[in-house]
Amino acid sequence: MLDPKKIEEFAKSITDSMPDGMKKMAEETEGKVKQVIQAQLARMDIVTREEFDVQSQVLLRTREKLMVLEQRLDALEKAEDETQPEG
Questions:
Q1: Is 3 in contact with 48 (CB distance < 8 Å)?
Q2: Could you tell me the pTM of the whole model?
Q3: Residue 36 pLDDT
Q4: Is the separation of the CB atoms in 1 and 42 below 8 Å?
Q5: 3-class SS of residue 86
């Protein structure tokens, strides 16, 4: 999930942008703003950059392994074709 500090900073920036008269009310509602933001982000099914990078590396390694296996299969098929009598 997303970094709670980032969410807190975002919620704080919203409350800081409010007029002074509303700051007290903003302080009371800051927790609710955090909850709403977290709930909305959770619904979006977002992954962190770290999770994305990890999955990208897993995919890269999987592709490399697949290429090696395809090459081995091609070599085996070629060897089999060469050993089978024609006819």
A1: yes
A2: 0.49
A3: 87
A4: yes
A5: coil
